[in-house]
Amino acid sequence: MAVLVRDLLEVLIVLAVGAMLVTVVRRLAAGELRVYRCSACARPTSRGYPRCRHCGSEQPDAL
Ligand SMILES: [Zn+2]
Fold it and tell me: Does pTM surpass 0.85?
């Protein structure tokens, strides 16, 4: 019985990890692959910041 419970837990953990991976992959595929690029140096940066991480220039459409 204990072995059965352990196996069930293992399956649940695998399912949980699998679901997490699917969520991450879906999110990546859904839009976060569209990398925002700096208007000055064209390197990928984050729109969450008003300035480029690389060259420090201000981003016109920063969030
Ligand atoms: Zn830049």
Answer: no
